[in-house]
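Encode chain A's predicted structure.
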Amino acid sequence: MTDQNVTTPAASDPSPTRRFASRRLAAIAAVVAVGGWVAWTALATPALPDFTASGDPIELPEDGTFPAVSIDEFEGILVGLRGQPVVVNIWASWCAPCRTEMPLLQDAADAYAGRAVILGLATNDDPAAAKQFLVDLNLTYPNVFDTTGEIRVALGLTAYPTTYVFGADGAMRARVNGGISEQRLAGLIEDALE
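Encoded structure for chain A:
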């Protein structure tokens, strides 16, 4: 007696093990594709914000001072520095990568003195904590404080720290989100000096 309700799998039907393996490979391929896109996006040069300093020139703050500046005063400082490259580094005292890179910025300020300017900009911070941060790290290059947050907004800040490089003509040439290495900083300054 033959049971007509019994079916046998066709030779072309994949086994459950093969179906699972195919799904697993598809999932791995999707993860690799998404991971590749995320890595490419993270490493891609970020678009520069539409920022051009204007206004009357203002001199750099005196050594040892840490003045609060408005967006107009910040732009005036940049206008006053035209003729030489300017590196603006945005930081906060609570930012661990900032603490790591600030000595590199001090070294660059010393190495490029008279040819380029390093300008620190503290924002989203307590002024007293930021001032103590400068003292603790023995930083002597000029630093200012963004009290309102307007400067960080105008520069399109998305991460702490962020470094902006302006050419001698005042045009923004580069932005580096996150910490910067000594080699990358030197390369950006050298490019801006050319």
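The longest strand covers residues 117-123.
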